[in-house]
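Example is below:
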Amino acid sequence: MNPYIPIVGLAALAALFVLVMVGLNLVFSPTRANRTKYETYECGMDPTPQAPGGGRFPVKYYVIAMLYIIFDIEIVFLYPWAVGFDELGLFSVIAMLLFMNAVLIAYYYVYRRGGLDWD
């Protein structure tokens, strides 16, 4: 247990620091509530009104979100595979080729839906 004493001490010091800072913020921060403070903020511009029918998002929003998820999944699987490539056998190479094929199909779908066209 002796080697963990500095880690526990540092964690306690960090927790104490957080509590002191939050307490100081509550005591010394100005509280000037006004109507402008509670309005929605959109990049320094006035918020746009919702479209009739509930303000639906265009399909392109979801296609771009799908592209981001596909890219993240690709990196999560490719990076560890590339790091351990020397120890892996033929089965892992074939599995990665199949995975890359699935990713390329997804990229092709996004391309066909216009997700890569920046208007």
Q: What stands out?
A: The helical segments are 5-28, 59-83, 90-112. The chain has a mean pLDDT of 81.
